[in-house]
Amino acid sequence: MRENSRIPILDYGGQGPDLLFLHANGYPPACYRPLLEHLARDFHVQALVQRPLWDGSQPEDLRDWTPLSDDLLRYLDAHHAGPVTCVGHSLGGIVALRAALRKPQRFSSLVLLDPVLFPPYFIRFWHIVLALGLGYRLHPLIQTAQTRRRQFDDLERLYQGYRRKSVFKYFDDDALRAYVEGIACQTDSGGYQLCYSPEWEARIYVTGVWRDMDIWRGLPRLQTSTLIVRGGETDTFWEQTGDLVKRKQPQVQIETLPHSTHLLPLERPHEVYELIRTFSKETQ
User: For the packed helices 91-102 and 66-79, what is the interaxial angle rounded to 10 degrees?
Assistant: First the structure.
């Protein structure tokens, strides 16, 4: 797999302790502008640009998500002498958690926003799906990713179309505009295209979950102060998953944010910021 010797980073400024943000699959860091601007009131905020957004990266090289945690640790070893607060959404939460289990000294605290963590029985089921070669056919989000519109002429028209979609019902106008501007990269012809390719999005979906028994085995040894925030209407971090996390590691805090889904950091940026700020004060 090609590795980026200089891992891209976006700096959102701010004064205070270092906070590193890790984005979700299909959601470039700019999609989270409202949340990152809130966080910059209390932290020096940087957002790591993960492999699917690197120039020349090849999705077929990825077999599981562990290289993404390698990237995070490599960046921290190169650029941060001390531990940092790490906030990860969805995929980003799992990347951060796996890295903290391997090198706890690199992290002062973790905030996992609706992480993609499923119970062991589901992991075993996904092993069977992959063994039968059915991952691309059975994953519920892959067909949507593969058929996603790639080219756009007018971001305002795109925004207006998205404003009518139920999936964005909890986004306020500023959050939805940040999302639209975050997913679209300008082309040489003057139009726009998806920054995050559907091929990479599908590859992330199909290569996730199956290695996650290492997380369940490692949770009892988790040394890093950790907050998990789940959406009240999430279809990803189930309530039963949270119950099992608490049994494995009672020190993990879990909060459920009402009127939010798996996209809670985009839907409720101010409320998520307040939870992170309060947790940070409690763990200093």
Answer: 60
9-283 homologous superfamily: Alpha/Beta hydrolase fold, catalytic domain (3.40.50.1820)
114: left (phi over 0), alpha (psi -120 to 50) or beta: left
CA distance 205 to 261: 18
**What pTM, to 2 d.p., does this model score?**
0.96
pLDDT digits (tens, 9 = 90+) for 20-47: 999 999 999 999 999 999 999 999 999 9
| Residue at token pair 């910021």 | 273
DSSP for 115-164, written as a single string: -----HHHHHHHHHHHHTT-HHHH-TTHHHHHT---EES-HHHHHHHHHT
Residues 203-214: tens digit of each pLDDT: 999 999 999 999
Domain boundaries, the chain: 9-283
